[in-house]
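Cast an eye over this sequence plus tokens and walk me through the fold:

***
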Amino acid sequence: MRVPLGFAFAILYVWLAQPTRTSLFVGGLVLLPGLLLRGFASGHVQKDKQLTTSGPYAYTRNPLYLGSLILAAGFAVAARSWWIVAVMIAMFAAIYVPVITGEERYLRHTFPGYDDYARQVPRILPRFAPYRSQQSAYSSARYWKHREYQALLGCAAILAILVIKLVW
């Protein structure tokens, strides 16, 4: 459901966007930390193998979704449209909140230490001090395995489309 809705939203986004040079520059600066967070998180996560509590997972249980929210904020700034902001909020509430809830049920059932981790690490907004973790460090192999580079390519493509829209 996320992917087809994402493509539909991309079309609506480009249609409603009213970028300026300043909004594109500032929006690009805002989305950059989201890309970095998503990339760093993807190099730590070991899906279905162990409960990941290292790297950005030591500060928030959902750094990938937090990174996506930051990306969305950057794209909202770049587009300069309150309609886009409203649709982004609605999509997050309708799609990501249930997905996060389902993932938490799975993690609670699969990993015995999840309840302790969940009590100490916030769902989205990061904590200041890291959760204690004995896990491995960042792995670029995991970054490539999870194909997180696609987020960078997607961001570049959308920004390029906005630049073309601005020029025309």
